[in-house]
Amino acid sequence: MNGGGATYPEAWPNRHLRKVIDLNSTETNETNETATEQAVVEHTHDHDHAHGHEHSHEPSMNPELTREIAVEVPAEEVSETYAAVTKRYQKQARIPGFRAGKVPSSLVRSKFAKELREEVLQALVSERFRKEITDQKLQPVSEPQLLDLQLMDGQPLRFKAAFEVLPVFDLAGYETVRVEKPNVDLTEEEYEGELSFVLDRVATVEPVEEDRALVDGDWAEIEFKGEVKPLVETVTEDGVTATTPAEPPVTGKDVLIEVGGKNTIPAFNEALRGAKPGQEMSFEVEYPADFGEQTLAGKSVSYDVTVKAIKKKNFPERNAELAKQLANKDSWEEFEAELRERVGARKQNSLVGNAKNKMIEEIIAKYSFPVPESFVQQRVDARLERGLRALAQQGMKPDDMRKLDFVHLRAAQRSEAEREVRATLIIDKVAEAENVVVSDEDLNQGVLMLSLQSGESYETLRGRLVEDGGIDRLREELRREKTSDLLYEKLSA
To answer: For the domain bounded by 204-314, which CATH number is listed?
Structure first.
């Protein structure tokens, strides 16, 4: 998984086992699990902890996908490695009272015991681990948890390592999924609605001085207060009593409403037509269940409204000057063409994106298989990270972030994270079946798009991606996008 998810780590054993053994703690299961957790956190997070965000979850694995290997290195090889590392330290050590290169090996082993042990482990554990998983034809997808590590000079090195592997499942059946291809053609009404929205930003509002009533096309400046009626009422001896909690009133001051406007609630149109400034009125509005404002959807509100003024909106002339102001275009025709293209692309992306999501959901429903817990936790981390960054951008302070219930937040993200992992595993398997390949040209275009979005130069961004392994994750993500596009074209009707 990319963007904070898990990639399949072909070359992680050296890097991550090194992180485990660098700690050089006692050989207990608890120590090794703690070390592995630190390795996992470092691997999956390269973010700024100024958020006050700390992970408390222990490393865990899905039992159905957990494999364990036992490794033993002969005592002779352990002794030879200790001797070689000690000899190198003898040459490099600087200890008062001894000339360079003349420090006794016994003193080196005593003074640098921790460092020697670490280097012996570096030299032996990763190599033997990699050989063992190769011999057993295993492909780990999580960092290993080292168990029962035993190392002493002159004795065999023994350890066990537990890790997760990818699930095995039969891909047959995805070709039977069908998804309806939406009509993405831009209607004139949709275009006019977007144009009105754009023009509204540059319109001026002026009061109507003449003494007259409101007519369609006018903008009424009103003040209102609305009482939300309870959804459930009970008739008792004392009259009608609400059995649902009272909601706060809906209020507005100096609000502009277009009389007769297509986005104006009909009840307001009917009440305001013919009204004059200073006039007060009361009426009730029944909001439909699918009303855009969720707090009012399906509810009934009794309004008291006062008309304060009649106003007119004046729009600038649609010419080259306005086109230059709105979008730096040389003519109004050029501006309209660009606007149509932009609105049409937005509609297409939205509808096609929804159709693809529906397709993926239907494909996911066809398969049942265990997913690596390490992948799920990485996706939880990524989703939580995005949420924290959003909160930071909205102004939340690090001290306030530290007070968040991260256990609850992680639990709330788990279901969606598991779905994302399942979808990615299926898409990757489909990519193999369909022989989807990302060319170097595709990859370069992907880097270019990221460069344009981030404002970072192409050369700098590409160099950084190559250095930190992001280029491989980008290739994986592009492959998944191509696979999703292929499936959509193949399965949509």
So the answer is: 3.10.50.40
